[in-house]
Amino acid sequence: MEIKEEGTSEEGQHFLPAAQANDPEVIQFTSIQKIPNEPQLEFILACRDLVAPVSDRKLNTVVQISVIHPVEQTLTRYSSTEIVEGTKDPLFLTGVTFPPDYPIYEETRIKLTVYDVKDKSHDTIRTSVLPEHKDPPPEVARSFLGCASFKVGELLKSKEQLLSLSLRTSDGGKVVGTIEVSLVKMGEIEDGDTDHITTDVQGQKCALMYESTAPESLSGKENLPFMNAVLRNPVCKLYRFPTSDNKWMRIREQMSESILSFHIPKELISLHIKEDLCRNQELKELGDLSPHWDNLRKNVLSHCDQMVTMYQDILTELSKETGSSFKSSSSKGEKTLEFVPVNLHLQRMQVHSPHLKDALYDVITVGAPAAHFQGFKNGGLRKLLHRFETERRNTGYQFIYYSPENTAKAKEVLSSINQLQPLIATHADLLLTSASQRSPDSLKSSLKLLSEKTELFVHAFKDQLVRSALLALYTARPGGILKKPPSPNVSTEEKSTQHDTPQLRRQDSIPHHSDYDEEEWDRVWANVGKSLNCIIAKVDKLIERDSHNEEGAGGSSSKDGEADPTLEDSITSHPREDWYEQLHPLILTLKECMGEVVNRAKQSLTFVLLQELAYSLPQCLMLTLRRDIVFSQALAGLVCGFIIKLHTSLHDPGFLQQLHTVGLIVQYEGLLSTYSDEIGMLEDMAVGISDLRKVAFKITEATSNDVLPVLTGRREHYVVEVKLPATVFESLPLQIKEGQLLHVYPVLFNVGINEQQTLAERFGDVSLQESINQENFELVQEYYSIFMEKMPPDYISHFQEQNDLKGLLDNLHQNIQAKKRKNVEIMWLAATICRKLNGIRFTCCKSAKDRTSMSVTLEQCSILRDEHQLHKDFFIRALDCMRREGCRIENVLKNIKCRRYAFNMLQLMAFPKCYRPPEGTYGKADT
Ligand SMILES: O=P(O)(O)O[C@H]1[C@H](O)[C@@H](O)[C@H](O)[C@H](O)[C@@H]1OP(=O)(O)O
User: Fold this and answer.
1) Is the separation of the CB atoms in 758 and 911 below 8 Å?
2) Using alpha carbons only, what angle is made at residue 379 by residues 376 and 385, rounded to the nearest 5 degrees?
3) What positions does the domain C2 occupy (predicted)?
4) How far, in Å, is the centroid of ligand 1 from the Cα of 761?
5) Ligand 1 in reach of 678 Cβ (< 6 A)
């Protein structure tokens, strides 16, 4: 019989060839009845009276679970239990679970093979590097004890949903013990005779009886398809652990990829292309420039065109990856996949514990957003951007220095102009339509909209920057006589730096045209407001006269029955007017005035952008590319985290209120070291995460089957539209339904834990980590203040009763100040604060594979201990179970095709103890 390894092949990822999955003719097997989106089958295992091959040796047992598919009759290795040491009656804490889409039927046969493990450190189970997926030679690590098999249908139909099977030797002859298979329904009472089952902890017994309620849906049924639309290829694991009062809790671990890994980068790159094409066009439309500026513009344009082509090529390549939802750690340096986050997953723990409500704990795990292809020789974004700005500020006479804030402002105004001008034109046309229909009500409402938009338009130019840019452009036109520098709207800080340095000379050399009429712009700009006022006045008059006409026509008369002479006058002097004709010339004037303003402002602000681009080409564009790449990776993770959080908390009114009044905190745990390349990664990551502040979310009602989020905006500000099904959308607070923007507050705390960090602490520099932690602590505090201020008092008083956030914040602050080596307490506290504040949790290292796996499993077990009374003697065993057989070892396998954490002994010695994986799960791996 052919043996396959689950999860290493394409088949492992998709479970069934598509043709078979869709063809009812081929599949004639009995499906397992199940709750939608819940695992199809879950069971736990225990052995009894195992016979040791050598009588004086204590058994260390492990069960390997394999599936015999009824179609192909092939044996697929599916999962394993943990190793239970020193007992002939092992009870396994690691169970077996088959996710919703797994091709399993009542006819499917499950084979259970029991091994005796001789040497744990060599028992690297199911290492896929072995050819033909053969077992490691038994003498090396484990020896076969016995096996048994059953059909899924037999288990489902069995009395008490429990099978007790004899374990036999390979020739099928000798019975070497019994294996018990108990069907599990998460959240349901588990029956069974427990007397014989002991844990491996001396003398301890755990009753298998649950005192629990029926399963409660943790996320609404209606929105499940929406959430599942972004998740792919779930891996599920099941455990049972004892509580401190000797009851059992059940834990389901789930890890899923997200289609957003590719969807968001594609959306974002399309927006970059649109934004850059528009900017290039505006540069072309700058008009005549003097030879110096014209040459500069030509140079900039040729580079910018090349960049657009590059983005287009990347988009084409990414578009070929239809349906992809995972970029492996080994692809992190691939140029065409640079915008895609590394190894992005939702890591979920679902807990069902006695007496407590079922609970979900999510962490998004992802490789630190970083530009791996560009590399880290010169550092990462934090350093590169700082260096770039300093150098730009101090360069010679060729450019006018605009601060990053001013450059951003120029982009913002340009974007407002591009949005508002067509909007105003549309509202103006609607006003004329209302006029031609002679409808006072619709005339009034059209005017209201027109006024609002025109006021926004006028307001957009209320900035000194526009004036200085106009002047700068004027002097750059051919024939400009250059005397005095146009000074951009510099902040006091900038002014002082410039005065302290040779900037004075440089500024002095920048030209000014003596003929420049500084007030001309004011006149042109004010004309827009004036022409709007004329329209308002005219509309008022028309409506007023019309109402008088109506009254007149209706036989208006004074109380005593005599006609009102003034009204009669007005009726006779203003016969029924053509409103359209009255308004048309005024609208034309408004459009003309607006056109004039747009023309001037667009050109001058584009000239500001030219200054930024002209400096240090092509490095400046490469820096933008780097920032775009890092941001794209960070954004894909954020959108995934936001959608998951939204779907799991939709039924919590407090959460919804927090969402629209405060916004959500998004906490990133970084495990990067501040040594060598990882310094650059951390510098990239810090900027990428802080750039996420430019993102806001908006929730809309889904109107089609396309439920993927939609991205709009430009580099300074993005809006992510998240769609919800109509029924769910209807139940949201009004503010959210009305499209209010929902904000996020990203924060990053980093603590390096590996051997590189030891070097950094002994011989290097940890200041980057220290300043990141300090800066981000201030951000958390700021968020907390807004939270306390904006949430309703009754919510806050209940919240304060439940949580000592103030104490946690103080503790975090003290830990940050303490400057202790590898102070992992910082990460634990930050994570706890985030969870208590209903935030979104992230964990990242270089690849989100090894260190991240250690950290999320530790976090999961800590939650079980702190929130669900995990028995203290089982903390390490639970941790080892999760690390040895849980979702994260599958993560390693799917990344590097090898079931082994990439740590060597030396590295592990440097790790804080609770971050070290169990024996036999780590070693040299080809990453
Ligand atoms: O998932 P990571 O912890 O970033 O993986 C590291 C691992 O920690 C380290 O021990 C090993 O030497 C590799 O550098 C891993 O990174 P890869 O990106 O090469 O998987």
Assistant:
1) no
2) 125
3) 20-165
4) 19
5) no
Among candidate residues 304, 834, 845, 861, the one labeled active-site is 845
Query: What is the four-CA torsion angle of 873, 875, 879, 884, rounded to 10 degrees?
Result: 10
Q: How far is CA 417 from CA 413, 438, 523, 610, 613, in A?
A: 6, 31, 18, 18, 21
Secondary structure (3-state) at 622: helix
How far are the Cα atoms of 367, 656, 708 from residue 637, in angstroms, in the given order?
A: 10, 21, 14
Return d(Cα 40, Cα 181) in angstroms, integer: 16
The span from the CA of 578 to the CA of 900, in Å, is 83
pLDDT tens digits along 426-458: 999 999 999 998 888 999 999 999 999 999 999
Flag the least confident range among 126-140, 253-267, 453-467.
Answer: 126-140
Q: Give the C-alpha distances (Å, rounded to integers) separating 773 from 752, 770, 810, 817, 819.
A: 12, 5, 14, 9, 11
- Structure token pair of residue 34: 């199940």
Indicate the average pLDDT of the chain: 85
Q: Phi/psi zone of residue 805: left (φ > 0), alpha (ψ -120 to 50 degrees), beta?
A: alpha
CA 815 – CA 822 distance, rounded (Å): 11
Does any ligand 1 atom lie closer than 6 A to the CB of residue 233? Answer: no
For ligand 1, whether the C-beta of 847 sits within 6 Å is: yes
> Ligand 1 centroid vs 920 CA: distance in angstroms?
17
Phi, psi for 711 (deg, rounded to 5): -110, 135
For ligand 1, is residue 400 a contact (CB within 6 Å)? no
ipTM of the complex: 0.97
pLDDT of residue 119: 74
Paired tokens of 501? 């340095």
Instruction: Provide the residue type at 369 as one letter.
Output: P
Say how many Å lie between the CA of residue 916 and the centre of ligand 1: 14
At residue 360, φ and ψ (nearest 5 deg) are -115, 140
Position 5 confidence tier, pLDDT thresholds 50, 70, 90: low
Q: Which of 264-273, 447-456, 480-489 has the lowest mean pLDDT?
A: 480-489
Based on the residue annotation, tell me whether 887 is a catalytic residue of this protein. Answer: no
Name the DSSP class of 563. P
